[in-house]
Amino acid sequence: RSLVVSLFFKAYLAISQELVKSNVIEEDAIPEREQSGAAIFHTPILKSAQLFERVCVEQSTCDPIGRPKVHASAFKQATGEAIYCDDIPRHENELYLALVLSTKAHAKIVSVDASDALKQAGVHAFFSSKDITEYENKVGSVIHDEEVFASERVYCQGQVIGAIVADSQVFAQRAARLVHIKYEELTPVIITIEQAIKHKSYFPNYPQYIVQGDVATAFEEADHVYENSCRMGGQEHFYLETNACVATPRDSDEIELFCSTQNPTEVQKLVAHVLSVPCHRVVCRSKRLGGGFGGKESRSIILALPVALASYRLRRPVRCMLDRDEDMMTTGTRHPFLFKYKVGFTKEGLITACDIECYNNAGCSMDLSFSVLDRAMNHFENRYRIPNVKVAGWVCKTNLPSNTAFRGFGGPQGMFAAEHIVRDVARIVGKDYLDIMQMNFYKTGDYTHYNQKLENFPIEKCFTDCLNQSEFHKKRLAIEEFNKNNRWRKRGIALVPTKYGIAFGAMHLNQAGALINIYGDGSVLLSHGGVEIGQGLHTKMIQCCARALGIPTELIHIAETATDKVPNTSPTAASVGSDINGMAVLDACEKLNQRLKPIREANPKATWQEWISKAYFDRISLSASGFYKMPDVGGDPKTNPNARTYNYFTNGVGVSVVEIDCLTGDHQVLSTDIVMDIGSSLNPAIDIGQIEGAF
Questions:
Q1: How far does Cα 175 stand from its chain's mean position?
Q2: CB 558 within 8 A of CB 582
Q3: Does the chain have fewer CB atoms within 10 Å around its N or its C terminus?
Q4: pTM to 2 decimal places
Q5: Which fold has domain 514-629?
Q6: What one-character-per-residue DSSP string does 235-299 give?
Q7: Whether residue 62 has pLDDT greater than 80
Q8: 94-111 confidence digits (pLDDT tens)
Q9: CATH 3.10.20.90 fits 46-70+456-510+644-694, yes or no
């Protein structure tokens, strides 16, 4: 109703201005302050600039590191020639699978009747929990608290109850709608964090705590103590390519999967579990993904497991690519968070203590929610030193599809709380929040509340550079003037700094492998444990390999990520893909360089192809595997003084100017300046693309 009135008033202002132009009404009939209310937003001409460190190396040397090289698949992707999972040509006798999903949030399954579906033309089979053992049906990312097919109860809408396999997508989806399920609805249905708190619906072993210093004493000594709360909602991954999988049986007990996943090893492991075969009988391949953002790190199994089971049992290739609504219904989102905090600070604005409670909405299963909460608890202070800290964290169990990894993995939610705290302090002591930020920034040599020493901490430089680059103070004065002169249009400017820890929370995941095969013509086939999701990882790995071997990038190719080339891979996640896989590639290259060293020294003026030919005829192995494990990450600081939670931190500061239409709530971002310290970039073009894409 309010919007309708606003639009009517907007029309009144617009028509009045037309009447003024036509001299029908007086010029001062509409005050100048009111006039901008008639306007609507138009997309401005976009202007942008990217500044990065320039690498000065002679062009004659084969060293692409640090150069803005074009993404290896960029032209294929731009022209539509890049092959994704569902673009793989159909097999001769291929079938299509459609999922049968729950329509209730919390209910007992009374009966599942697929008889009408199975009578349909072209329908071959229906699979449910009755077709596998209870042990095979139990799956999960870390804790096996999920089912491939819901057996007795459903815990969210969109939970998989069964799967129909038919000749085509149309037949399969039509038949899936004819599977009749009777439910007995159960209470309570818990959706929000507040409802979970009310019903004490938490996963076991929570709350968890991180305590540093003496919070109680610090509160007693503080000039001000303030309590508040803030929340952050969920967010859809909305990758362009929905979850997809093609499974093909090989021989009597082997199966090959092409899967849109960030984690081929987990798919391999869980498919082996469901089929009761060893892992060496299952191969999972990923050529490239059309986006992932964390949504395909652990949730790909929702589709991959039914497809693999159907293919294995029917001995025929089976395919499925979820429709957008199915994908959004089944896969979960970013974790919604609720923070309740109590903060103590001096009258100058120096923060001395914080007691904060963090609640995340995990959905109906654990998935990776415990790890998301850990990172949020570690990032709640963002870049601000708080000497006395008590952080408590709860993982809430609700009747939503299981929420999962999503860009930042709990870090953005934690930093969101820090920025609220800083602005609360600034408001209460009556100071500019920029001054409060600077007063509380960590300095090099400080320790975080999880006992990690900050080395070479560049926050002040990022902060100053961003203020200068964005002309923050000049823009803020111009905004004040604009807001004074416009009643229905308002502008705002904000600055947000970030500090993000780089490493997997689980110590064993900070490892990677690589395999390099050099062929007789000198061409190089590189395989590594990371998946190309569009982020340019393969391009960076080719650059690393080219530098290490001293050859042009054109001689190197990466075909795919596959579990039969590099085993036991970690998921491509946590912003460590290029760090760990790049080091594994270097390790493999080093082994090859050692083998080729005598040949190179004997004939230094020969070409790469001549060296490789000589090595082949001298019976020197031209294949090498590489391995890397991140040192000193994830250990206990009490037993290892060098142990640290994160390998290092990336730091950044962003400033945005936004205009809103107070009548309609419409808004437009007018300008953004971002300064990121990411060390020495392997490929500035790709890294800037990632930063801009993330923003």
A1: 35
A2: no
A3: N
A4: 0.95
A5: Aldehyde Oxidoreductase; domain 4 (3.30.365)
A6: -----SSPPEEEEEEETTTEEEEEE--S-HHHHHHHHHHHHT--GGGEEEEES--S--TTTTTST
A7: no
A8: 999 999 999 999 999 999
A9: no
